[in-house]
Amino acid sequence: METIQITQTTANDFKTEILKGVKIQIDELKSQFQPKEPNEYLTRQEVATMFNVDLSTIHNWCKSKKLNPLGLGARVYFLRSEIEASLTPLNV
What we know:
The protein has a three-stranded antiparallel β-sheet with strand order 1-3-2. The protein starts with 10 loop residues before the first helix and ends in a 6-residue tail after the last helix. It has helices spanning 11-32, 44-51, 55-63, 80-86; strands at residues 41-43, 70-72, 75-79. It has four helices and three strands. It has a domain at 41-86: Molybdopterin biosynthesis moea protein, domain 2 (Alpha-Beta Complex). The chain is rod-shaped.
């Protein structure tokens, strides 16, 4: 183990310098921190309600690969982010 000797400084000065360095590192981390948003899953019924369409339309969109369904057992879910990404702008 290495030994570090600090000379010509008081304990308070040393403590202050350490705290300054730590504060700078924390501030830098805070500025770069991007919290990850959890995935929001929607059921078939929620997607149908969102677009004001029937469940058969949601089924057809899945078969034609317009929507990417995710399954858990007998349940079908969709990622909200994928639903929003599948929307395309209209040329009006």
